[in-house]
Amino acid sequence: MIKAVLFDLDHTLYSREETLRRAAKLLSREFRLEEGQLAEALVRNDHRLYRDDYSFAGQGAVYAAMAEEGLPLPPKERFLPAFLDALCESCTAYPFTAPVLLDCKRRGLLVGMVTNGGHALQDRKIESAGIGGYFDDMVMAADEGVLKPDPAVFRLAAERLSAAPEECVFVGDNLLDDISGAARAGMRTVWIRQERGLRDHLPKPDEEIGSIEELPALLDRIEREGGFH
Hints:
The protein is α/β, with parallel strands linked by helices. The chain has 10 helices and 6 strands, in the order βαααααβαβααβαββα. Strands 3-2-1-4-5-6 form a 6-stranded parallel beta sheet. The chain is elongated, with a radius of gyration of 18 Å.
């Protein structure tokens, strides 16, 4: 029986592209850059250099790529902190995120989150996205001293929801950090498909969906059929 559904945050519950475009608007004003050009460069290079969080390493790679393309960017020491602030202030939930989380609550399921970031960063994103009120508990792995894909952080999340791992479903976009880690903790897994596809050396998810918008239909099917395929 499913007791809880847990979610990754980044690239699972909010639109990375829309967040970047909104961040570009803030950055273009601060540094007097052309908004459209900056937005396209951010989206293009972020997609090409995709990382699973907005770490300074990931931002630095995007900055270097844009500078190489000839964008008239300010010095990295000024741009990167502003980039991080803009991303946090611009975090944009998908239009279907809140309805899906509410659907889980209406089913009587507990709703949790496991993210590798810490409260200092992730709380700002969650507030900006306007989705914090739907969660019964959120585990910020960086503050717990253990990061995904370590199964210990998934077990901690289940324990804090008073659920056994086998009573939990984890939904995320990263095959290593989300799907492999949750599976090794004993949870059922739902992978949000990415272009890079399945990797042979990683556990295959129990289920695949194109976005969390498809989760209610998947839960309906699981309830009808009495379990995961």
